[in-house]
Write a structure and sequence with these properties.
The complex is a heterodimer of chains A (403) and B (356).
Chain A lengths: L3 H24 L22 H13 L17 H13 L9 H13 L2 H12 L5 E4 L15 E4 L3 E12 L6 E7 L9 E7 L5 E6 L8 E12 L3 E2 L5 H17 L1 H8 L3 H9 L10 H31 L5 H24 L13 H12 L10 H12 L7
Parallel strand pairs in A: 1-4
Antiparallel strand pairs in A: 2-3, 3-7, 4-5, 5-8, 6-7
Helix pairs in contact in A: 1-3, 4-5, 4-6, 6-10, 8-10, 9-10, 10-12
Chain B lengths: L5 H17 L2 H10 L7 H9 L18 H13 L6 H14 L2 H13 L4 E4 L14 E3 L2 E10 L6 E6 L2 E6 L4 E5 L8 E13 L7 H34 L1 E2 L2 E2 L4 H30 L3 H27 L10 H13 L4 H11 L3
Parallel strand pairs in B: 1-4
Antiparallel strand pairs in B: 2-3, 3-7, 4-5, 5-7, 6-7, 8-9
Helix pairs in contact in B: 1-4, 4-7, 5-6, 5-7, 7-8, 7-9, 7-10, 8-9, 9-10, 9-11
Classes of the chains: A alpha+beta (403), B alpha+beta (356).
């Protein structure tokens, strides 16, 4: 008798699984099977084909791109268990979640927490349908790690704010429709003078210039605001609450940047399989280079311990509710290990891992080169490793408590 | 910390309270001063047995509670924090060998006594200073076992030895054919060279080819649990010290160079905890045990090694004194790092399991 509710719950879950399977059979285009969507927080240019558009719209209509967001704002309204089932079935079918980007990973969860009803109804549904691209207006030329030093001003002009200043490292700024921005509304207080403002990227006075990086790519931009008029309705929270809201958003960012699961998927083949191909094996089937074998094992063990840590943090935050300060630890560990792996690939593949373009290299080898270089940004953006260390020392370890 | 059920939380709290109140490091200091070869307090071990800790992984039909490895790991971690000396790990590992490889008759004979703590047992495996050799000189003829085992944990006071011979694992009772030579080690715990001279031996018949590896994987995980408790304690003590010690008119904790070192150690500790808990969960599920156990012990070795060195360094001169506890953790750390596989051996095992 005591087990009755469990059985009900179980059969409900199975019914949901069947629903997902039916949905996938009817809506997921066969030609997209095995095609991953860019899981990165940074979105590329919009080059959607017919099948991709159909798949995005089908998922968007159900709200399943953001499965646990409330239904009233266009989310899936699913329980965590149902969301897990959805993910399992997507993976089984070789399907991907077509709805992502900064709106999903960072801005959406933050607006759900701090936004007004009007703001949530205006902004969340288009994110849930994957129809709008958001970018992040945080860093400035003189406000990197010292983010609160930001100088972009929003002047109160009665019915609107007048915004002037420059943002930098605006990821995907050249493709974004809107920007969530930290601006200064008060010069007298460094932290309490910051507000959280939403700006249309096509508003008059907004100019975007891509920055070419060492990887040859231009995923980041400089963004200039010159006398940009922003309606007052676009202020999230109160004036002066921007630092609190902005930091909350960064917790979501860190959790996503470290995300063990997606990183493992992005990394593809194991180091040992790649090494077998490039270095060869001896008669016992072991890697021929024993020193390299030892170093790969050393890395793999720590990488596995990190994946277990990401999983544990996920389980703990589920039990406790919400993202936690542990996100700083995950970001710091995951990005460092990711870079270490990229460096080891060069050791394993030798010169083949250092090709820039053209003949003599496989597509994988060339994309590996770019990933290695781009990966150097991971310990700098989203709060550098040094900033994460400061956060851990201060917030988790209480090393400044007595001051 | 893994998400625990109510039963596990109670068990952990009970172990934490007991270790803090009844078995703080001052108890270890007393045992060290007394110098008995057992190096643990029989009354304290009897209390641990009364609380059910000796039967946590033993099935109910044999007198245990069958709470599982994760539950036992919580207890062992708490005991590691206060350097509590006891044959709990050694006896549990012997019990696990009997569970995995014993006949019904052997289980019925030994497990109830091990579960109640009346019988104390230990593993006698290695024949040299490093855990590497897989070919044993110890041999058995006509049910009589002969050979010498080095650096056997908790040998003094053991009623039963689980001994690795060339052709399998054997149960040998403490008897005239078993002699102990005490080995005084840096951790002041119970170690001996054990010589078996035609001692009556009873083979663990039911074990398959991997029996020894299966037992060693359990040894690696439980040892890693003790190491986790130690690493946590060293970290906590060091953090406390940095928050109190004043130099240059500043509390040391305000220096960024030290903050970042503590943040690094905090990240390492998180990875170690995940690896150790992963090992315990694998033992409970029976899935991927060899791999998970290797990861658990390798991470325990890596992190406790760094932690114990940094702990002494960050304590400065006082960390070098016998009066201060931190040195005990450094010394015990190296004993446990060396036990059941040093880092080089573990990495080789991990690569072999992974097929490279």
């Amino acid at each position: 008798m005591a087990t009755q509710p469990d059985i009900d719950l179980h059969s409900e879950e199975e019914a949901f699984r069947t629903e997902v399977q039916q949905f996938l059979a009817e809506n997921f285009p066969e030609e997209l099977k095995g095609k991953g969507n860019a899981l990165s927080a940074i979105e590329g240019p919009d080059e959607e084909n017919e099948a991709e558009r159909a798949w995005r719209e089908a998922m968007g209509e159900r709200g399943w791109g953001v499965p646990t967001w409330p239904k009233e704002y266009g989310g899936g309204g699913l329980t965590r268990k149902q969301a897990a089932i959805l993910n399992e079935e997507l993976a089984k079918a070789g399907a991907y979640n077509p709805i992502g980007g900064m709106g999903v990973m960072m801005f959406g969860p933050t607006l759900l927490e701090y936004g007004s009803e009007e703001q949530k109804h205006e902004h969340i549904p288009p994110i849930a349908r994957g129809e709008v691209r958001w970018c992040q207006g945080y860093s400035e030329p003189n406000a990197g790690s010292d983010l609160a030093n930001l100088q972009t001003t929003a002047e109160d002009k009665g019915d609107h704010y007048l915004v002037n200043g420059q943002k930098t490292w605006t990821s995907g700024g050249q493709w974004a429709d809107k920007c969530f921005c930290l601006v200064r509304t008060d010069r007298s207080d460094k932290h309490k003078g910051i507000s959280f403002l939403l700006i249309d990227m096509d508003a008059p006075g907004v100019e975007v210039r891509p920055i070419q990086m060492i990887s040859g790519m231009s995923p980041f931009c400089e963004t200039f605001f010159t006398d940009v008029k922003v309606p007052k309705d676009n202020l999230v929270g109160e004036e002066g609450q921007g630092w609190t809201i902005g930091k909350r958003l960064l917790q979501h960012e860190r959790t996503n940047l470290s995300g063990g699961g997606s990183m493992a998927r992005l990394m593809g083949a194991s180091l040992s399989d790649i090494a077998k191909k490039y270095v060869g094996t001896d008669e016992t089937g072991q890697l021929a280079d024993k020193v390299l074998r030892d170093r790969i094992a050393d890395f793999d063990i720590r990488w596995n311990a990190f994946l277990l840590t990401a999983r544990r943090a996920g389980e703990e935050s589920k039990a406790q509710g919400g993202v936690s300060e542990i996100s700083s630890v995950l970001k710091k560990l995951g990005t460092k290990l990711g870079q270490e792996r990229a460096e080891m690939l060069i050791e394993i593949m030798g010169m083949q891992a250092l090709g820039w373009e053209g003949e003599g290299f496989t597509e994988n080898e060339l994309s590996g080169t770019r990933s290695w270089l781009f990966g150097k940004a991971t310990t700098i953006y989203g709060g550098s490793t040094e900033i994460q260390n400061n956060i851990i020392a201060k917030r988790v370890l209480g090393m400044l408590d007595h001051q | 910390m893994a998400v625990l059920n109510e039963e596990q939380e109670m068990l952990r709290d009970m172990a934490r309270d007991w270790a803090t109140e009844k078995s703080p490091v001052t108890e270890f200091r007393k045992l060290r001063r007394d110098g008995a070869p057992e190096a643990y307090d029989p009354a304290a071990f009897a209390t641990m047995a009364e609380m059910g800790w000796t039967g946590v992984i033993i099935p109910e039909e044999h007198g245990g509670s069958d709470f599982g490895w994760l539950s036992l790991g919580l207890v062992v971690e708490e005991l590691g924090k206060t350097l509590t000396a006891s044959p709990l790990i050694a006896s549990t590992l012997a019990a696990s060998a009997i569970l995995l490889g014993g006949t019904e008759e052997q289980k019925a004979k030994w497990l109830p006594g091990l579960a109640s703590g009346e019988i104390k047992a230990t593993l006698a495996i290695d024949e040299g200073p490093r855990h590497a050799s897989r070919s044993f000189e110890t041999s058995v003829a006509d049910g009589r076992l002969s050979g010498t085992k080095s650096f056997v944990h908790e040998a003094h006071g053991a009623d039963l030895f689980v001994v690795a011979a060339g052709d399998g694992l054997y149960l040998v009772e403490a008897s005239d054919g078993v002699s102990l030579a005490e080995r005084s080690m840096v951790d002041n715990r119970n170690h001996a060279e054990v010589t078996f001279d035609g001692a009556a031996a009873d083979r663990l018949e039911n074990g398959d080819d991997t029996l020894l590896d299966d037992v060693l994987d359990r040894a690696r995980v439980l040892t890693a649990c003790e190491m986790l408790g130690m690493a946590q304690q060293v970290f906590d003590s060091t953090l406390d010290y940095l928050k109190q010690r004043v130099q240059f008119n500043q509390v040391l904790a305000t220096f960024q160079a030290l903050q970042h070192r503590m943040a690094d150690l905090f990240g390492d500790l998180a990875m170690m905890r995940s690896a150790v808990e992963g090992g315990l969960q694998a033992l409970d599920s029976g899935f991927g045990v060899a791999r998970a156990a290797t990861i658990a012990k390798a991470e325990a070795n890596r992190v406790l090694h760094t932690m114990s060195r940094e702990g002494v360094q960050l304590h400065g001169g006082i960390g070098m004194t016998d009066e201060y506890d931190i040195g005990f953790y450094l010394k015990r750390a190296r004993i446990l790092e060396t036990s059941w596989g040093g880092t080089a051996m573990l990495k080789d095992r991990f690569a072999t399991i992974g097929g490279y």
